[in-house]
Every structure is written in C-alpha cells, then in structure tokens.
Design brief:
Length: 1395
Amino acid sequence: MDQNTSIIAELRAEQVDQISDNVSRPSYHLASLDTSADADSSSSSPLPLRLQWALGRLKELFNELELEQLVVVRPRIRKLMDLGRASETNGLGWEIDEFGQRLGSLKTIKEKRSKIPVVRYLPCIPDFRPSEVNGPAPLEWLAMFVHSDVPSVCIEDHNACCNVCLEDFEEPPLALESQVDGGDDGTQASPKPLRKLICGHVFHEDCLPMFQEDDCIGRFECPACRTEFWNSEQFALLSTGRDSVSSDQQQTYDDYYNKLLPWQKIQEGLLDWATWLCINNLDEFLNSTACGHPVDESALYIWAIQTYKRYVYSRLTDSPEGVVDYCFVGPWMEDFSRLVSQGEHEYASQMLRGSWDNWGLQDAPRLLAVLSNHRHQDEPHWVVHRFSLPDGGLTTYHFHSELNDCPDCRPTSWWPAIRLTWPDAAISPNPGIPTLVHVRQPIQLAVDDAVAVAGVWHNILMGLPAEHSVDLERLRDLMYTEVNGLHERFTSWVNYLSTFFGDLYGRCLCCVTKSGTASAGLGTRERPREMHPHDPRFGGWITFTCGRLLELIILDLAQQRQELLAESHGSLVYQDVQVLYLIPLLPKSESPPSHTSNPPPNDRPGASRSNGNTPSQLSSSISSTSEPDFTSRSETSSSRSTSPTRCPSGSSNSSASPSSSASHHHHSYFHTSHNTHNEPGRSSPASASTSETTPLLKKPSRSHFFTRQGKGNLFSYLVIILATLLGALFFVLSRSTFMHQNPNPRSRLTSFWVDVIPSDCHSIGTREYTATLAGIPKDWDLVTACQMTPLVVHGKVVQSEPSCSLVAKSSGSIVVMGRWLVDFDESDCHPIWSNLYADDCVANGTRSYHAEMDYVPSGMDRLASCREAPNVIHGRSLFPSRCAVVLKRGEGSLNNSLIARGEWDVDFNEDGCIPSWGPLISQQCVSHNTRLYLADLIVPPGLEGIASTLCAHTPATIRGRRVFPNRCEMVVKHDEGHPNHSLVARGEWDINFDEDGCIPSWGPLISQQCVSHSTRLYLADLIVPPGLEGIASTLCAHTPATIHGRTLFPHRCEMVVKHDEGHPNHSLVARGEWDINFDEDGCIPSWGPLISQQCVSHSTRLYLADLIVPPGLEGIASTLCAHTPATIHGRTLFPHRCEMVVKHDEGHPNHSLVARGEWDVDFDEDGCIPSWAPLVSQQCVSFGSRAYYADLVVPDGLENIALTLCSSTPVTIHTRTLLPSYCEQLGEASFRGHWTTDFSESSCEAVWTSVNPDEQCLAYDKRRYTAILERIPEELDPLKTCYEAPGWLLGVQRTPELCDRDDQGRVMGSWFVGGPECRPVLFDVRDYGCIESGIKRIEGQVGDIGKNEDWYRLCVTIPYHWYRQTYLPVQCESRTSWAVTRRYAMYNIPDSSCA
C-alpha cells in the first residue's frame, strides 16, 4: 500500500467515526489492535481448560484400575506417548476421548466384577443334597466344617474343579479336626477364594477373566457356558461437550466460563475447536498461507476470529466503554444457509444466536459481516455479505465480473432467521432490495480471492469503506502469523500430553513389573539421532537395549519353565527374575542415555523437585528402590513442519521471514530408577540379590537338558550368552574408537592476537579488522585455538566468531590469521547528509524532499550508503525512498564530482499538501430523507493532475459529520473578472440524516366503517415534500402513521384525484389505507340476554340468545355467530349451533333477520339430573345377600328416556355406589330399580360353631372335620345355607363338602382335609420282577403311621407314582420279625417286558 493510500485510509476511518450512529470509535488499522487481548484466559497450564479436566478424569480412572487391566491399556498408553505421530490422522480430542472410553469401560467392568459373590466349596454327598445345582449347603452338612462368613455351596465331584485352570477345588477343614488340633493357629493355608456366577458355575477368583477380547469392549461371558452377563456402557470424555464431567465439575466450569470476558470466551472457543484437529490439518492451514497458494477456509477463520477478538477487546476497553455492534459470521455457515433454504428458520436462528450469546455479548448487533464461499458455475467464489439491521440493507461485495446477475449470491432469505434470533431488536420489517457491488479484483484472482475478501471484511469491521485498498501481501503475512501461533500452541499441547502419558506408562510398567505380569515387549525403539556411533554412550545404549531384550527372554523362560525355576530357587517370584545382568553389561561411569534435548525435570508439568529424577521415576510410589524401572517416552519437538515460503514485500522490513520451525522428530529412550553404579548410602541391586538369594539361573541337572524342554532351555541360554558377548564387544570397540578420536583434555590455552590492523569500512557502522595469532600451545589445534582466543578492540571484547585461515609467510612459516567485522564505536563508517530541500507535493498529504550525501566512508559504495543512511525529517528518522548518483558541478570543469542524492516522500505533517472543499451548496430532495449537496475542491498546487482522485478521497463536514463524496465530476468553472475558464473537481453528497424537510407525512386520519370482526378501516392522504412527487406511490408504502399509539405502515396505497376548494385544477395525491384490528371495541359483536330452555339430556339444558351485530357487518352475521363466545355459569362457550331467524320487533312495521345461537350446557345443571326415592329394604335372598328397591324421580322433559335414566342412575348402599340390577316399569313414565347386595349384610349370615376333627384318618392324606351351623335367618333354606356358608379351617376359609342334620336336628357340615399326620411314607421300595404276564410287583415298607391310626385303611390308599401314572396298593401286609412288626404295601405295575 503506498503512502497516499495510507493517509486516505486514516482520514476515511476518522470520517466513519464521526458519522456512526453509535458511540465514537477509535481509528483502527490492519491488525494493529491491542495484543493484550491475546493473553491466555484459562490458566498457567499450556492446555485448554477442557483438556485439563479430561486429563484429570483420565488420571482418576487410571488410578482405579487393577493390575490385570494395566496390561491391556499399556500398549494404548505407549501409542499415546507419541502423539506427534498419532495426531497426524486423528485429532487430540478424538485420541483422548477414545482412551477415556476404554478406561471408563474397564472401570465399569471392575465394578461389575466386584459384585460377583465370593463362595466356599463343600463336597456334595447323597444324604445332604442341595435344592439346586451348585446350590447352598444344608445346615446339617455346613455344621461339620469350620465356620466361615463366606457363603458355602455344595458342588458334585465331577464339577468340583475350575474350568479355566482345571485345578480341583480345595475342601475347608472339618470342625472336628480343628478341635483336635487345638484350633487354627494361622499356619494352615486357606483355600483359594472362589466366585459364583449367576449361571451357577464356580471359578477361582484369580482365574476369572475380566474380559475376553483385547479391544476392551467389556463383554463378559462365562468361560463354561458362554452366558453373557453384561456389556459395558459407552463412556464419553470430551465428545458431547459436558457429559463427561460430574455435576460439581460442570457447575465449576460454568461459573468459570461465565466470569470470562467476551474476548476471553472467543479465545476459549477457538482453542476448544483446535483440540479436535490433527497436526496434518494445521500443516495444511499453514502451508495455504504461503505465496501462490489459495488460503484455506479454516486458516481464514483462524485469522478472522482472532481479528474479531481484538476488535471486541478494543471496543470494550475504550474509555468510555464502547458497544460491540458488529456480529461476525464465519465461513463455516454453510449449515446456516442450508437450514434457511429448507425453511427451518428456528434452528438457523438458534445457531446464529448461539455464537453471539456464548461470547457473552449483550443486546443485538447493528451489522452482520458474513464471509461466504459461493459456488458459481462449479467454481468457488468468495463474497462478503453486509446486513444492516436497522434499515434492512443487504450489500454483497465480490470480485468476479460474471456475478453481476447472481440471485442466489444475495441471501435475502436470511432475514426471517435474523428476526427470530433478535426478536426485540429494531430490525426493519421491510428489507430493501439487495445490492451487488463489484470490487476491483486482485491480479491473481484464483490465488488471492480469499485474501482479498478478507480485506473487504476487515474494512467493514474497522468502519472503512469496503472498496478501501489493502496490502494483500501484508494481510497474507498476518494470516500466517495467526495460524503459526496456533500451530506452535498445538505443538506445546502435544509435548505436554506426551510427557503426561509417559508418566502414566512409567507407572503402568512399574506396577506390572512389581506384580509379576509378563511384559508386552520392547515395542518400537529408535536410536538417538544426535548420538554418534563411536560415542561410548551409544555403546552403552546398545548394551542397555540388549539387556532389555535379555530381560524379556528371562521373563518368558520364567513363565514357561516354572518347574526348573522352582527347583533352583524354590518359587517363581518376578521381582527376583529382574535384571541380574545389568551390572556386568553397563559401564560404571555411564548410565542409560537420555535425550539430550530434554527439558529439566522441574520444568515439566508434574515433575518432582526432590532429586532431579524423571517424572516417571518419582510418580510410582509402589516400585521398590532396589528394582530398576524401565520406562519409555517419546518427545515431540516444538515445531513440526518447515515454514511455508513467504511472499516478498515492498517495505524495508518485509524481507524478514517469519520464524522458521524445526523438523519434527520422534525419539525413544529408557530411564532407570537409579544409576547402575553404587551411590552413597545405596547398595547395588545385583549385590543385594546375590547376597540374599540363591542365583536364579543355576545349572540344572544333566538329565534335564536331554529332555525336550531341556534342549529348548539350552538353546535359550546360548542365545542369552551370545547376545551379552556381542553387546559387550560392541561397547569396547565404540569406547576405544571414541577415545582415539577424542584424546585427553588439552592444556591451558595461552594464545593471543598481535598485529591488529583495521581495514576499510564494510558497511554503515561496521569495519573489518585482521590480526595474527601468537603463543599457541603445542597440543592445541590451530583453528580451534583461533576460534577460542578473544580479540579486544576499542576496549571491548569482540563477540562475533572470527574467520580463521592459515597463511604462509615468506620465511616459510605458517601463521593463523583472523578476520572480524566490528560494528561498534566506528564513527568514521557513518555517511553524512547535507542540507535538506523541500520540493512540490506529489500526493495527497505527501511532499517530496531531497538531499545530497557530503561524506561517504572509504571502501563503501555510494548507492548502498545512500539506501542504508537515514535522515531526520519532521523529527523522524527516515530512509530514502529513492537513491541515485549524480554529477555535482563545482567551480570550473575540473571540480565536478559524483555524489549520492537521496529523495524522500514524506506523508506526515504536510498540511499544505492536503486539499479542501469550497462552500457547500444545498440542493433539492432526491429521495426519502435525502438531500443533494454540492461543493468544489480546492486543490494544492502541483496536484491538479490527480484532482479527480483527490475528490473521491477528501471528506467534507456536513451537519457535524465527516462524509466522503458519493460522486465526483470535473466541471468548467467560470470565474467573474477572469477571461479564462478553469477545470475544477466538483463533489456531490446524498445526505440521508438530519433532513426533516425531505421526510413525507400524513394528513388527518379518517375513520371508516367496520370491515371485519374487531377491524376498522382508516384513510389518510400523503403530504409529499417538493421534488419527490414522482415517487409518491413508493413513499406512501414506506411512510408509517400513528394509530391508537402504534406506528403502522399502510396496508394499501393508491393514487387518487383530489379536488381542492378554491382551486380550479385537481391534484393527484397518494392515499393510504389501514385495516386496524386492535382497540376497536365498536367492531366486536355481542350477545343479547340468554334464555334458559328445558332439559335435553341427562344433566344437560338448552340455552338461546340473539347476536347483536355492529353496523356494516350484517352480511357476515352467520360467521360472527359461530365465532362469538358467551359466558354461561362462569365459563366462556362458543355456540353449538347457529341459525338465521326472523325477529318481530314491537313498534316496528318491518321484521329483521337476526343470528340466533344455541348452547347445550352439561355442567352445573342439577335440575336435569334424575334421583332416587328412599330405598326400601327387603328380606334376605341368600347367605350374606339382601334385596332393595327404590322409585326413580325423572326431571321434566326427560320422560321419553326414563328407562335409560333408570339403568344409568346409581344409588349409594352401605357407602358403595351401585347401578340397579334391573328396572321395573310401574307406569307410563314411572320406573323402579332393584338391587341385591352381598356385602355388609351380617343379619343374613349364619355362624359355624364346635369345629372338631375325627380321631382317625379316613384315608391317605384325608381327615374329616365337623361343625354346627347356627343363627340361620328364618327366610333361608338351612341346608342350602350350609353349603353356601364358608368356615375357617386350618387357617383357610372353606365351604363344607357335605351338609346334613345330626341326631339333635342341628345342621352339621363336614370337611375332608389332609394333613402331615395322614401321610405315611414309603421307603425301601424294591422291584420283585414279573409276577404274571404284563405285570410286575413293586413292594415298599410303610412308615410314619400315627399311634392311634388304622394302618390298613391308610396303607391301601397310599399312592405310588410310576412313569407319570399313579397306582394304589393291591394288598397290604403286616409282618413280624424278631419282635419287630413292619407293614408293607404291594403294587401291581403294568410292564410290557413281562411275557
């Protein structure tokens, strides 16, 4: 952007501040807002608040997992440690949310597993069988074992083993054994705990898996029967926004978010959006800002939201505080346009309102600035829509000439959604015709389309004209700066998260190693790239890696060869299997290498400050200090991709490229919890294990090696020994090579510089010096000594590194020469300017100056010195705009010389170069509220050639506001007293404020008759200002009137001829018509007096009334009747029927036609409800039942439905509401109802007394009980009542099975009820085989017969069940043997096998 355009931009910004109908705003420049709005509003943590809470939740879930679950999540954590690579495909939010779902599923599985009941195993014997398979043990059998609080279950022998490990369940000790041994002293091992599933299967608690699949879907199945017990619920951490946190956390976040200022909320929203991106997305956004590439839509959004944030900050921090009246709608509003096009304005308004309210902005905006990517003929075209809410204006700015007629480019359908978004705002109800403005397109339209449209949007936001020119290269650099800042912030998130997950991995590995769980493997390991192969640290790293491999081999052997290890060590303990080989492999002076670029431990989040250990070493409190901890991490460098190529800039400082970003590397390294050499106060782990335990890998017996397993062990040990020797050999070779290349430390450096000689000036303020090095020690390299020996010039040490070279002298010796560029205290290297001369004006507010350079330092180029030497003009130091070498003529031809000449274009403090306006001339009105003004431009001398351009960019002050001309033209001006004519620039302004003389008004309102229900017609004539008669019809439609206190636009306008009294001519005026439907009580019909009629149905009465119709509405009386309510019994009701009837008015000879309404009222009409006469009680009809009757009282008018009313009218008997059992007609309209009640009739009930059982059972499971029935009503049959009367027998109410009279004539009832004393049992049942063809004999002994019972009567009725058939004895016998009498029952059972 040239200097002239910059001055015009500042003036235009000041003018907009004066004409704005809001509070005054400061002058904004491109991306020059206060950067204090960029301060991170969340906390000191590098992460957004959402990610901080997600990591806290992850840490809580991780701490709640069991050791077995850590085996599953460890590979996932190892992957998350390398988020720099993982985030190339998935965003950070997706990765963390997926990991949170996995941890949540594992936590759910843990909770559900803990609810599986713990049981104790007891053997199952025939005498004490449980009621169900694997059911609880009987109390008699349970008492034989040692008491335990754990529930016991009886399991049959063939099921008494774990289906996973196939190990038999252990029986608890017997109670008798515990008493003989003197009680449990704690030395006896307790059985392994068992858990019982709901399917009945029992397993060892340690053998019961928590899941069957590695993907942790959480489905649990019984290992025996595959019965599925649960599916863990889906667990969301970040995806639905706020569902992942607790109610307290959510309340805390809401309180925090509501306290944020609007620009801080905008910042939080941008960071939350960035968490769901991946690093590839940000690389694409960043690369798209390079020169020659179209800017990506998301990169444009990042720059725009940051610019809008600073705009909000600037407005709200003004003094006094400003108002944010611009609403930013980003390029992501395709969904909004789609909803609007589908007519879903409510959802669209919610989307638009959401961003405004979420940012905490108040009231409603005045303007909407929308960035939109429009597709025209299958090509993307960027446009800017400017919605002006108060006046309903819509302007679309574009750069494509083919869009001159593009109806779908102008989103007029947005207006309904905008009104729904801000219903209380002052939005014009009649939007104007949308305007399509073509802005001058950039040179490379396909590349700079998005950048150019961003400049237009920025001008609208800053209050500048949309057509105001913008430096596209500078704007593209600003976009790069914003995207690169977000890219660097994202990289810091990746580094922080890599450290966080590295700590989790270290804790996970420590816990798994401590518990004895097998390692999952080394995983991917990368050699440190900055480590030289001959560096002894690299050899130590290789040796350490070999040691790690050997550790895993040992662990695998320990798991697969438990018998051998138990033979050599006594038991398999993972802690003792650890790195016995580390001490001989690692050198004493070297520890396993770590990444040299690691930050100090105290600088990392979560790092301890105690002894400088890594976070993974200090976070695991469960790892022993005598055991190594192997932890792997991945570090991500601070920047990922190489910076995109920047565009060259015309300014002097534009050559400085943005900060380059280093290449992205991933490194893996190991840590141990202590150094391998012995530290003070700490013993070596190898020495400790050697002194306390037997060596783990002792030589097995010879016979074992020749078995199949022994041969495998021999091969494994050979692999271990060979790998160890190779690692040690590599270490020795690398150590010797490194020491050969790096000899012992040098002696003290005593060299110094002599023969320091200054040379010519190299550049402004810089001179070259040379010197010779002397006093070099013999054991020092010459070049190294040259670079490390300081030089002192002007009493100061030169900080720059010298350029060293070896020079051969004439004597044959070689010396070291050093060269420096000294840029301090070199006053002779500064050129000097002569007098400054002012020239003519060259542009608006810009004057040209020139000066000659009197002194140029020796050795420097004149043009270079001219360009780099500033001069002071108006108190500012400025570099020349142009430089040239000219010939300066002196006295005589021999005194001519070449000199440097500099020229400056100064665009400040040059009031003499600013044009002004002559007197303003007011003209006639040109449109509604708009008047034309004219003025001639007074052009400074020298600028006459650009008078037309100056006219368009020079504001004038009209009615206290600074306004640019709407149009400019060159006209010939005739000056009085001058024969010649001059050509001047004339500006024209269309002023649409403070022009009350150009606003039309209405004449007196005339009230007309009613036109519809509650609506009246009003008329008025429009008073048109002079000059606007041609658009009177348009002004009529857009000029409101005040009726009943409301401002309303006309519903209809028409041009009519008006006859004025006293004027012979007629005038054509615009007449407006209004249909007023409020505050018009005279147009509302009403009802006459209500007339009550007779009843028409049960509880319903007919009412009639005539409608009083307002004058003018007689033609729609029938319609008004149906829509006019009446008030009956306090309720508002519409008529059920309407009819037109002829009404005869007294005193009037003519009859009128009126509308009559009818209502069927079915409430509060007690006179239309039938009732019953008093009830008459009759005699008892059966046990507990009595008959009643009553006569029906029918209301007048309902006699024809008396029978229906009788059957549907209830009565209350004994507090119960009953309908008649039947109705009896007594007369023409007289009916009687009859009822029979079977409750609360104690007078109709008889009573059983003297209930007695027989002494002996009648048969198997049958005994007779008798009772006497007393208090029988006289009107009832005694025997029938006996069968109906229930009696209580053995806690159950029963009716007798037999009724009769006893010897005394009393009614006696008999019951035949079974009981346990009448149920003898069969035991010792034997099959005696066939006794005849098709019959076999079954015989069983009868037992449990009562003392006084007839055994034979019971025996012959004992049933025997055989294959779903019941048989009775064919014979019963009593047999005596050895003074013991036994009874037997014999059954004949059909059997087809008996021939």
